[in-house]
Amino acid sequence: MSVRVRLAPSPTGFMHLGTLRVALYDYFFAKQNNGKFILRIEDTDQSREVEGAVSNILKTLRWAGLTPDEGPDKLGGEYGPYTQSERLDIYRTHVDALLASGAAYWCDCTQEALEESRKQHLGYPGFCRDKKLESGEVVRLKVPNSGETTFTDLIRGEISIPNKDIDDQVLMKSDGFPTYHLAVVVDDHLMEISHIFRGEEWIASTPKHVLLYEAFGFDVPKFAHLPLLLNADKSKLSKRQGDVAVEDYIAKGYLPEALLNFVALQGWNPKGDQELYDMDELVKLFDITKVNSSGSVVNFEKLDWMQSHYIKEKSDEELLKVARPFVKRDVDDAKLSRILDMLKDRLVRLAEIDELSDFIFEIPDYDADILVWKKSDVVTATSMLQELKDYFEDANCSDVEKLEEDLKNWITKNEYKNGDVLWPLRTALSGQKNSPPPFAIAHVLGKEEVLSRLTTAIKKLS
């Protein structure tokens, strides 16, 4: 059997981290099995569609490198998605077939009648099952009154639901659009989808889909329902407690390799002693049956750790390339490279580059107290700053490694304490208690600005 998987988001907003995880698992499984990864936009509920959502889905997948292997057209070198609203005739034909076979029926219940019924019953009570109507408000599936519907989940094993607990769900609405339940089954069959990965919230709907497959005489694909992503308090991950849209993380400057590595390991880890994987490793090691069935608590500190690692792994040229779009200041590549080198060990989100380097372009108005090391005093700090000013008159700031080596040798030669020298130097150059090392700052500022800031610091202590 050839492997064909699909990502089928609704265009109701930005892509959720959970949807990205589904896309990753689809992609891993398809590549691992020489299969096809397909994108389908499920927009049958037109009332919920958000403008720009489809373009955001496409943009996000492109950013992640998860481009479809197939589609109805190929524009700009990439396949576009299948779109359900463009396939209405197909769904109507299939509904007609169900009506003809007796597997579905017309229902003419008004909304008022259904709302009144819901006050008395848990689901649709089957008012129109035996009316044999020629038309009506909607078309419903005729679910068997007895027995149970069973399917095997690749993560959870066999699941059985009594048919009495399954509604005669609506298949075609009064506006001529199919419901999700009909469209997803018809499309997955026609697109020859072999495996369906989706969130566990769809478990309750799966028996309805299995009944539809059987009513059509279709082969039933294999299912895997992924566990929920959870907040630290075990509640469902939602925007009420933080960012949940991939777009938010892109905007903050997270690297694709960091976010994809992080999301892929939510509820699954191929090796207990390894946390960092590239895409090729993830494809090779992926096993859908090893995904946990319980919810996964999302630890965003781990994401920051991964991001920091991948930033440090980049060459100067690579970091400049990915950072440039996030820098709003008018700064040339040479200076930006020095800034990035200065921030590399502290940088997490690329969107914070401007904020973290503000002091380079305009030193904040700081209190003189911060110039004095905790184990020193004003007299010592003033003396050290004066000596440092004399030292930098002849220093070469263009080579940061040599600058650090020479200055540390100078400290050792004069038998000074590191804190007595480096603390006032760093705070004088940055105007901050917490900042990058003074050598890196001096390298970015250049000799003239270093001397100017040291002069200002001496005056503050006078």
Structure commentary:
It contains 19 helices and 14 strands. It is an alpha/beta fold and 462 residues long. The protein folds into 4 domains: 4-85 and 229-297, HUPs (Rossmann fold), CATH 3.40.50.620; 87-226, HUPs (Rossmann fold, 3-Layer(aba) Sandwich); 314-360, no CATH class; 363-461, Arc Repressor Mutant, subunit A (Orthogonal Bundle). The chain has a 3-stranded parallel beta sheet with strand order 1-2-5. It has a 3-stranded antiparallel beta sheet with strand order 6-7-10. The longest helix has 16 residues, at 17-32. The relative contact order is 0.09. The model has no long low-confidence stretch (mean pLDDT 94).
Question: What is the gist of this entry?
Answer:
The protein is α/β, with parallel strands linked by helices. The chain has helices spanning 17-32, 53-64, 88-101, 111-118, 180-190, 206-216, 246-252, 256-264, 279-285, 300-313, 316-323, 333-343, 353-356, 358-361, 378-393, 400-413, 418-430, 438-445, 447-461; strands at 4-7, 36-41, 74-75, 78-79, 82-83, 104-107, 138-141, 148-153, 157-162, 170-172, 195-199, 222-226, 229-230, 296-297.
- In the CATH scheme, the class of the largest domain would be Alpha Beta
Give the name of the CATH superfamily of the largest domain: HUPs
- Seen as an oligomer or otherwise, the chain set is single chain
Trace the largest sheet across and list its strands. Answer: 1-2-5
Number of strands: 14
Uncertain segments are none
